[in-house]
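Appendix B, Record 12. Input sequence as logged:
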Amino acid sequence: MKNISVIHLKLLYLIFMFQFFLAIIFFVLTILVGYSVLKPSQLKTDNLIASLIIGIPALSFIVFLLSFLLPLKPIYIFWIVVIISLCSLKKNITKIKINISSTKINWISVLSIILSLMLITFYTYKQSYNSTNGLTFYSVPNTHDSLWHAALQNSLQISIPPENPVFSQTILRGYHYFTDIYFSLFSTITQINTIDLAIRFIPLIIGLIFVLSNYLLAKAIFKKPISISLATILLSIYSSQPYLFYKLFPKATIHPSMFWLDQPATYLINPQLVISISILNLLLYFYLKKKSNSLRHIFLLASLVGIKIYALIAFLPTFFINLFQNKKPLKRYLYPVITLIFILGTVLLIGSNSKQLPFFLSPGWFIKQMFTNSDHLNQDTWELKRLHYITTGGVGATLHLIKHWTYGLVIFLAGNFGLILLPFIFSIFKNKKRINLLLLPMIIASILFPLLFLQSGVVWNTIQVLAYARIPIIISLLYWLKQKSFNFSFATMTILIILSLPTIYLTYQSFLTPDSYQNFSPKMINSIKNISFEKSNSYVVTDSKINDMALIPAISSIPLYAADSTVLTILSLETTQRLEAINNDIKNSCPGNFVYLDYKDDQIIVSECTETISLE
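Logged structural output:
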């Protein structure tokens, strides 16, 4: 028995090493595609990182576009993209080999990248997926989101556009799944299970890409290695300091998202958000290094539509302002027009929902909820005062109402961005360089949008737009520090990093709480893996206890006929008729090709249909 277990461990090790090798090959191919888009004259460390970051949207975007022209599986389209990239680089292959060997590595910067990555990915180590422990996820929202993405990636391995994994026989439209295309290709090549990717590897991958994009920005601003390293850490981990507001709001429970905006470690639950921030960082890097290539920028902006439209909302004002500053009259007007057409075309390709507007006007919603919600500031008096001033009327009440909203806005901004606002505001007035014209539109758009609008369906998703203001605020501060002495900038960045450590600890503490994790037993996981049907085209109906998550399609790749009501609400899909059919017809009489999955004793039970009865 002992020999068998040793052989088993060695076999698992060999499989892991082979998958790791395939993963490296996949990332090399990603860099290759990104490099073919960039086509820099020399390949240095910066260009390698930029090629990796741009390779993710490039792969996803091109595979997505070609899928409408070629009736092939996405993995075959992927190899076509790789071959095209190789052909476009055939003249530069020798240069690539020569320049990689001459690339210099700064170990202080490497250590800062590793430290930053460790500080934002520490929550992943308790997550697991295996036959012994079953499936363990951090937090219920993470469980819901990760299972949905795993299920979607399984569906994307079959076709683009994908079938909705929790609404079978329906093509998924109006959802931004470019990151899911990328990781579905990753899963296909490495044969790593999509759930394994979701809980073990994706947080590390997107965390590294995020930190590397911050490193590029730091390197574009500073020259000294120690300044670059501190700036990289600051850009990667800086968060608000909710603990500073304890005496001001004693009824509030102190936690990282007390004022809505989360600590950067929590972003990793949302791959789309992290990848979109990384792409925006790359765009900012191109501008800061004066490597302006508007067509390349148009490509990146168009890809953001499929990754995260919030990122497009945040950066578009900055992009258009800079395009219209072009000295050549033709480019001044031609590039903005091309950009607009390209972005609108991408939106139409992805598919938009015509049933309702994606956003609606609701000024101050997040400020009101920040004060009144029990899981935020828990201060009902703020809302009572607001209502009192409105009902009282008159000039005096109006002035008090303006003062009241101003106080709410100040708390909202100070709470979400912490003490960095003070040196940032000071740097705006002192730093008269063009950098403010680049960054301020992005900061203003990111802050104003969630203060004025809400997303239809799941309104609190809108707060994610605020995350795009964090890095440009820090960049503006860093440019101001660049003009100061080394000792002053070193001390300022060090203090801001230290101020973030208690918030990181609060996040870490919540990750260690057993109640923060959701578990699915090995018995249940194995019962899903072993689901089999007599008919290959069966439509699966689930019990109500498991129809609000994508657990079954995430593990077994079997699409569900109706499930995951939250996602369906976001997508504005009509579920009433299907749910009525399940409850009244399918569940009772089991017609046609339908299979009913029940949940009992921690396992899935399959009930095959024997009769053929029309749903009508």
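Confidence is low (pLDDT under 50) at residues 97-103, 610-616.
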